[in-house]
Amino acid sequence: YPSMFEPVHGSAPDIMGKGIANPMAQILTGAMLLRHLGHADAATDVEKAVLSVLSEGEILTPDLYGSSTTSSVGDSIVSALGK
User: Fold this and answer.
1) Global pTM?
2) 24-36 and 70-81 helices, crossing angle to 10°
């Protein structure tokens, strides 16, 4: 069946290029896609990695009262995948 996966948050032109956008919704959208394609284990791993970074509370973007960049949050999630 045709499907579409996107984080619905708008284009946010006011923060474009500033490195402060929270990448978690986009990453979790990827997990939804993986699950839809039959890769439930991979989707669960991605979801757990995002939750791990959130629960640690150290590397968060400004919308979550942190001061980390988009890239550092993404890197932390990638690192959490290996744990």
Assistant:
1) 0.90
2) 40
